[in-house]
């Protein structure tokens, strides 16, 4: 049987046999889902852009008061590294390096994800402290609509990693587990991309203006 | 509804005053009686359904064969049933509103408050719970058959989509019995729907209805697109697909990209209402214009999402009943794609009057007009399809003729509305109401009803009664014309939409005409049920078990009616456009395959996950509407846990052995060989068992 | 004003006349097909032009569909049957080309008319323009004449042949201001100012309204636009000054509460004028700007200070 042309991304490789071909449908469907999700983020970015003006700020705290660039930079680095470590997990999966290796990299990714969330929550706590809450202004509503939405995605990703660790332990590396790991990988890298947008549009340009 | 009531921690703001029966007793006015009557109808209807199921011992079959089924055909039928139930409510509401306006000179019998709830629920129901499920249903049933697939790519997700759509419908129905649905129009513009102006349950009901059914539709879109890309039979290249499948692909793309703006807008409104955000409030930097943009960024693609599959149905029926290939297939595909792309570039024409600069209006006005080009091409293509055909005036064709005349008028008024200067005058008037009903009824509804009549025999193995079908089609055409064309004139006369009462007697004559038209439409809807009843009673004489009652052209007719769960005993090898017509012409059709051609088929198992999520999200929605926080958290956590636990089950499919498939297939082929094929003259007679005589020019002698 | 001929023009004119004859029972003109000013007249002319051009694409459908159905009916064995014929390059060119050309013409007309009839564009007139500030309230309109120092509810008097420049805002939810016989509609939104220019070239009484649904009193939110000669207008101003009461902050707060014009009139015990019309002899000079700016000051506007909101208290401002 000839191997169909596969979509770019994390393919398993022909040596995974039937799973390789059947992964295509699941992975393609997940790509489409991510495109839909990206529209949601895009609209939140657009709303944020329309609110980033004196009217939207409504005299409330702005980027300069609310944001801590050092902390955000650390978060960015953590998330970027977590994408790298997930990449190692994916390579371990593809080259059949064994469950232990995959699980190790997943755990590292999970810890980085949790560290990211920890820093983010600390920043949010600071914003609440200085009164930069969504009820203060349209601008802050847009911020709290966008950035925590990404945070919620990361949290969901962390839960997903936990579930996958459990499934690898109980079910082994069966076909569905492999394709789920592929989709989780796409999800994780997608969140990284969205964060790059947030880092640039919300934090860097917010502090630059 | 105050926080001091003793059970507040348990019931939130749900209390005895939420029941609409009480105001009717305290304040017996016609308006309250209508509300109480509607609530009673829901309760009685629900109990009648429960009693019916119990009396006839249908609970087990309902659960086993339908609610837990992952078969795209059964899911499709359930969508259509949902749509018809909701259509009954939507049409009754429309009738009540028409009656109110006809008697609305200086008052009428409904309170303005009640009237505003009616037009809000009517709009919400007709778009989200009639048009969308009808489309989802027909697409679900037909598209996999047309591309030669065994099922959708994601059968379980398909069931979940249905469950979430049902959640939205359930919330709208429950709002008749518990508290009120929104009175803020189907578009729910803030700040009117914000907490300050509208603290009741209404906008919250709207938000959760929209969010849950919107997520369901997004998932449907993903499923449709992936199925078309990944599940086509061997040889079925994209450019060999029936035009209907192309329209489904366009609609799926619109679902994927256009529903997120609606979800986002609704959730932002929810954040404003629940969490004191300021996205759309008057004060503190909120901006209601963002909502308007987001809503129509969804809303305009939405109308094309609705009408494009209807174009697809017409492309199938006009070609079939003209006995011809569709004219300009490639042109048709490009026109459809052009419409789908342009539909994302025109949303601003819904608010030319918001005060933006002339240049912005011009860009969106011209873009809106551009849509008329591919739409016109499609109409001309259908006409060219009839050219040099042999046309049978069956029910789907009557709908098509109604479409040609009336939809073109809707197109004309659409071009009128694309001009900002004219929109300044007719925006928010009945002209606009007439326009969008003119594109949705003759466009979407006619298309889908003709599809219902066309494909019903495929789904159930017997045709719908032709005489009743003609009556229904004519009722729709004339009822629509009388009910809505007068509204254009009323719009020109300056009558605003959403008007419960008025003081100008000049409106009355045309409103009476519209009321008469609405009565005819009510007859049409009742006749749909009668037709179904009559057809079921006479199913023996209407039976077409051999599968091809209309001398069809596409793959869905190449399998028995109703099709087996796996659709095709052997996946078809497709050679060209309209492959089944070609197969019949070249003698490939109904060929007996070799004994080793049959293979075991793996089909997905039943699963209760869709029903569970439907119940879970309905409870979650109600908990959020009534501020019952513990229940909201509990239902959310329960759904998440079930989802995770379920993911630990690996195997969820069963195998149908090749021998069983071979036996069924051979039995059907034996029947085909034994049967007498019919010409198209006997198409609507009982002689038609679903096998067609080949009618080619060289055989019929019709060629000159 | 341009008035081109189009094929469908005559038929449409006939139909329109019939409708207007129906509408003519009322002395309150409320249709742009019966225009009383250059803007509405141009909008009507544009409508007819669009219909005329579009007919080129539509009439063939109406004519050819029945011909085709008859000629190619199943029982007509004489007609040619070509089941595999499915494309003609020439036909396709016409099918795409003709609608495209029509849209090109219509787009040009659209570009021209949208600029010409831009509601923000002042209208040239011999007299200096009259400025009016419009505040949309639940469910009535407040008209402030800043240069004359008077204000009215639900009655917009204007001198004929004089350009009128309206500045509009809302002190509740979004509304839409429309006087069909004179000019198209424009939204009014809290904290924002939109503009509309109009001119009446004959005296008369023209119905104005809010066209955007805003709740239970929405259908009562109508007002009369009275176009009159300069002399009559001056007399009207004098009458408002003489019979009206002052519009101060407290009165405005009570006026702004959700109520129809007639209810507000009763609540304010205002005597002069028709039953849903209120006259104010004087008005706080910056009232319009204050209404608009209070949403933009970065301070919350709680429901009790928000006109139209559930829980609005018209005396909250004083007790605060």
Layout of SSEs?
The complex is a heterotrimer of chains A (209), B (704) and C (320).
Chain A: H1 18-51, H2 54-57, H3 63-66, H4 69-94, H5 99-129, H6 138-171, H7 175-208
Chain B: H1 8-11, H2 21-26, H3 30-55, H4 59-67, H5 72-102, H6 112-146, H7 155-177, H8 202-230, H9 243-275, H10 288-321, H11 329-342, H12 358-370, H13 372-386, H14 395-417, H15 420-426, H16 430-460, H17 466-492, H18 508-537, H19 579-586, E1 601-604, H20 609-625, H21 629-646, E2 653-656, H22 658-674, H23 697-700
Antiparallel strand pairs in B: 1-2
Helix pairs in contact in B: 3-7, 5-6, 5-7, 5-18, 6-7, 6-8, 6-16, 7-8, 7-20, 8-9, 8-20, 9-10, 9-11, 10-13, 10-16, 11-13, 14-16, 14-17, 16-17, 17-18, 20-21
Chain C: H1 9-23, H2 38-71, H3 89-116, E1 130-137, E2 140-145, E3 150-153, E4 155-159, E5 164-170, E6 175-179, E7 183-188, E8 194-198, E9 204-210, E10 222-228, H4 230-243, E11 245-247, H5 249-255, H6 261-268, E12 278-283, H7 287-293, H8 316-319
Helix pairs in contact in C: 2-3
Q: Spans of chain B with pLDDT under 50 lasting ≥5 residues?
A: none
Continuous helix count of chain A: 7
Low-pLDDT segments of chain A: none
Helical proportion of chain A? over 70%
Identify the quaternary structure here.
Answer: heterotrimer
The share of residues in extended strands of chain A comes to under 5%
* Main sheet summary of chain A: none
Number of strands of chain A: 0
Sheet/helix structural class of chain B: mainly alpha
Mean pLDDT of chain B: 93
């Amino acid at each position: 049987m000839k191997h169909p042309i596969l979509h770019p991304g994390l393919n398993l490789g022909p040596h995974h046999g039937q799973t390789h071909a059947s992964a295509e449908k699941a992975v393609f469907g997940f790509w489409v889902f991510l495109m839909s999700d990206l529209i949601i983020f895009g609209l939140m970015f657009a709303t944020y852009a329309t609110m980033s003006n004196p009217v939207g700020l409504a005299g409330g705290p702005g980027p300069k008061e609310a944001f801590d660039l050092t902390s955000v930079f650390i978060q960015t680095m953590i998330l970027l590294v977590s994408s790298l470590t997930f990449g190692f997990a994916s390579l371990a999966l593809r080259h059949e390096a064994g469950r232990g290796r995959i699980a190790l990299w997943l755990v590292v990714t999970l810890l980085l994800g949790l560290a990211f969330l920890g820093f983010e929550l600390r920043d949010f706590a600071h914003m609440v402290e200085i009164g930069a809450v969504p009820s203060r202004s349209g601008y802050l509503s847009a911020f709290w609509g966008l950035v925590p939405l990404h945070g919620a995605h990361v949290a969901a990703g962390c839960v997903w990693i936990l579930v996958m660790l459990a499934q690898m332990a109980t079910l082994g590396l069966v076909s569905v587990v492999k394709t789920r790991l592929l989709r989780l990988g796409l999800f994780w890298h997608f969140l990284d991309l969205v964060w790059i947008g947030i880092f640039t549009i919300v934090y860097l340009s917010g502090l630059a203006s | 509804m105050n926080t001091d009531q003793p059970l507040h921690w348990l019931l939130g703001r749900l209390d005895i005053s939420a029941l609409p029966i009480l105001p009717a007793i305290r304040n017996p006015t016609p308006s309250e009686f209508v509300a109480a009557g509607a609530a009673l109808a829901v309760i009685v209807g629900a109990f009648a359904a429960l009693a019916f199921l119990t009396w006839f011992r249908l609970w087990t079959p309902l659960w086993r064969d339908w609610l837990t089924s992952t078969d795209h055909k059964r899911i499709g039928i359930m969508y259509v049933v949902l749509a018809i139930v909701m259509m009954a409510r939507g049409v009754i509401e429309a009738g009540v509103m028409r009656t109110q306006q006809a008697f609305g000179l200086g008052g009428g019998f409904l309170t303005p408050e009640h009237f505003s709830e009616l037009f809000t629920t009517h709009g919400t129901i007709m778009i989200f719970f009639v048009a969308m499920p009808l489309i989802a249903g027909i697409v679900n049933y037909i598209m996999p058959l047309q591309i030669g697939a065994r099922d959708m790519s994601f059968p379980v997700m398909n069931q979940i989509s249905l469950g979430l759509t049902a959640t939205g419908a359930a919330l709208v129905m429950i709002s008749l019995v518990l508290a009120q649905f929104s009175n803020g129009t189907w578009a729910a513009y803030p700040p009117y729907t914000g907490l300050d102006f509208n603290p009741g349950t209404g906008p919250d009901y709207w938000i959760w209805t929209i969010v849950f059914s919107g997520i369901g539709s997004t998932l449907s879109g993903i499923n449709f697109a992936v199925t078309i890309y990944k599940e086509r039979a061997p040889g079925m290249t994209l450019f060999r697909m029936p035009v209907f499948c192309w329209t489904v692909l366009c609609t799926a793309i619109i679902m994927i990209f256009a529903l997120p703006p609606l979800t986002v807008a609704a959730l932002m409104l929810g954040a404003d209402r629940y969490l004191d955000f300021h996205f759309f409030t008057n004060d503190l930097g909120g901006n209601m214009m963002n909502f308007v943009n987001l809503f129509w960024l969804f809303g305009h693609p939405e109308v094309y999402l609705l009408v494009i599959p209807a174009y697809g149905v017409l492309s199938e029926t006009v070609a079939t009943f003209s006995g011809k290939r569709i004219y300009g297939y490639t042109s048709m595909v490009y026109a459809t794609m052009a419409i789908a792309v342009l539909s994302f570039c025109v949303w601003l024409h819904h608010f030319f009057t918001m005060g933006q600069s002339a240049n912005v209006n011009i860009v969106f006005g011209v873009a809106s007009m551009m849509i008329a080009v591919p739409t016109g091409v499609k109409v001309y293509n259908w006409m060219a399809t009839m050219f040099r055909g042999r046309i049978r005036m069956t029910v789907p064709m009557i709908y098509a003729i109604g479409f040609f005349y009336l939809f073109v008028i809707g197109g004309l008024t659409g071009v009128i509305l694309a001009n900002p200067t004219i929109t300044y005058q007719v925006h928010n008037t009945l002209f606009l109401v007439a326009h969008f009903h003119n594109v949705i009824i003759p466009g979407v509804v006619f298309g889908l009803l003709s599809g219902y009549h066309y494909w019903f025999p495929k789904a159930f193995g017997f045709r719908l009664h032709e005489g009743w079908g003609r009556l229904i089609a004519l009722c729709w055409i004339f009822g629509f014309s009388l009910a809505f064309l007068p509204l254009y004139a009323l719009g020109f006369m300056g009558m605003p939409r959403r008007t419960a009462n008025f003081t100008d007697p000049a409106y009355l004559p045309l409103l009476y005409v519209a009321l008469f038209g609405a009565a005819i439409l009510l007859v049409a809807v009742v006749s749909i049920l009668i037709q179904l009843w009559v057809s079921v009673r006479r199913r023996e004489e209407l039976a077409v078990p051999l599968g091809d009652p209309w001398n069809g052209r596409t793959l869905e007719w190449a399998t028995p009616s109703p099709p087996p769960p796996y659709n095709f005993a052997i996946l078809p090898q497709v050679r060209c456009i309209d492959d089944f017509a070609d197969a019949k012409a070249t003698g490939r059709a109904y060929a007996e395959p070799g004994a080793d051609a049959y293979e075991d088929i793996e089909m997905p198992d039943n699963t209760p996950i869709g029903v569970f999520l439907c119940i879970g999200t309905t409870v979650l929605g109600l908990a959020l509407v009534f501020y019952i926080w513990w229940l909201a958290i509990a239902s959310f956590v329960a759904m998440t846990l079930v989802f995770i636990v379920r993911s630990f089950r690996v195997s969820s499919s069963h195998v149908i052995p090749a021998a069983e498939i071979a036996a069924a297939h051979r039995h059907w082929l034996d029947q085909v060989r034994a049967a007498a094929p019919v010409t198209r003259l006997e198409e609507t007679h009982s002689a038609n068992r679903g096998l067609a005589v080949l009618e080619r020019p060289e055989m019929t002698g019709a060629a000159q | 004003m341009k008035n081109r001929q189009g094929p469908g023009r005559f038929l449409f004119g006939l139909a329109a006349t019939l409708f207007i004859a129906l509408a003519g029972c009322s002395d309150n003109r409320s249709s742009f097909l019966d225009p009383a000013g250059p803007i509405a007249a141009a909008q009507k002319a544009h409508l007819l032009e669009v219909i005329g051009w579009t007919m080129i694409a539509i009439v063939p459908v109406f004519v050819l569909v029945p011909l085709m159905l008859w000629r190619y009916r199943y029982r007509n064995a004489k007609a040619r049957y070509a089941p595999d014929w499915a494309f003609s390059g020439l036909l396709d060119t016409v099918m795409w080309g003709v609608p495209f050309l029509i849209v090109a013409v219509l787009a040009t007309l659209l570009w021209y008319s949208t600029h010409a009839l831009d509601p923000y564009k002042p209208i040239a007139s011999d007299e200096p323009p009259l400025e009016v500030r419009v505040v949309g309230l639940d469910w009535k309109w407040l008209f402030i004449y800043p240069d004359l120092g008077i204000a009215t509810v639900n009655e917009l008097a204007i001198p004929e042949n004089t350009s009128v420049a309206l500045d509009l805002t809302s002190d509740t939810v979004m509304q839409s201001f429309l006087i069909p016989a004179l000019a198209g509609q424009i939204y009014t939104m809290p904290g924002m100012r939109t503009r509309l220019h109009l001119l009446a070239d004959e005296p008369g009484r023209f119905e104005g309204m809010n066209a955007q649904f805003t709740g239970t009193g929405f259908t009562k939110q109508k007002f009369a636009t009275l176009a009159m000669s300069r002399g009559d207008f001056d007399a009207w101003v004098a009458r408002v000054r003489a019979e009206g009461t002052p519009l101060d902050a407290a009165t405005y707060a009570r006026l702004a509460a959700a109520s129809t014009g007639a209810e507000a009139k009763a609540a304010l015990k205002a005597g002069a004028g028709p039953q849903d019309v209120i006259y104010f002899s004087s008005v706080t000079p910056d009232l319009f700007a204050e209404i608009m700016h209070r949403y933009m000051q970065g301070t919350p506007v709680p429901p009790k200070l928000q006109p139209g909101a559930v829980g609005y208290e018209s005396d909250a401002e004083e007790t605060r």
